[in-house]
Amino acid sequence: MRIIEKEKFNVVGSIITCEEQKLTIEMPKLFKKVEERKLEIVNRINDLIMDICISINGKMFKQMACYEVSSLENIPIELTVLTIPKYNYLYYKHVGLNYEIYDAFVAMYDYALENKLVLDETEFKIEIYNDELSEYDLYLKLK
């Protein structure tokens, strides 16, 4: 794990807000919806889909399934643009199974606590999926 500065970037995709217990049902639907429209996102920089936890408010999660884009031109209708400013993150590359990502985030939270790192109060985090290689880039926003 290490602290990195990630430059400002733009993403295009879809956002949902739902209760935590509904995430396991709603997120696969959201991923499918965005993946089905991938070819319409002509300015995407790669084929790696991202899961961004924009915020957590009580039990309500605001999540986005998206692709990073190089330009905000030609955005498909009904998809959302989000610009992520430059931030510092606690970063970890998880190599393993997708369902182990939760445990990787727990380890990141523990690491932050042990090293007196202050995390963003919105719990903003990014997961970038490379399922083919079983590699996942995980980011926790620091305050």
The gross shape turns out to be globular
Main sheet: strands, sense, barrel: 8 strands, antiparallel
SS class: alpha+beta
| Mean pLDDT over the full residue set | 95
Count of helical segments?
2
| SSE series | EEHEEEEHEE
Gyration radius over CA: 15 Å
Cα distance spanning the termini: 17 Å
The appropriate CATH architecture is Alpha-Beta Barrel
The total strand number stands at: 8
CATH domain fold name: Multidrug-efflux Transporter 1 Regulator Bmrr, Chain A
Strand content: 35-45%
The figure for the number of domains is: 1
> What strand order characterises the main sheet?
1-6-8-7-3-4-2-5
Give a verbal description of the structure.
This protein has 143 residues and is an alpha+beta fold. It has one domain: Regulatory factor, effector binding domain (Multidrug-efflux Transporter 1 Regulator Bmrr, Chain A, Alpha-Beta Barrel). The chain contains 2 helices and 8 strands. It has an 8-stranded antiparallel sheet with strand order 1-6-8-7-3-4-2-5. A hairpin with a 4-residue loop joins β7 and β8. The relative contact order is 0.24.
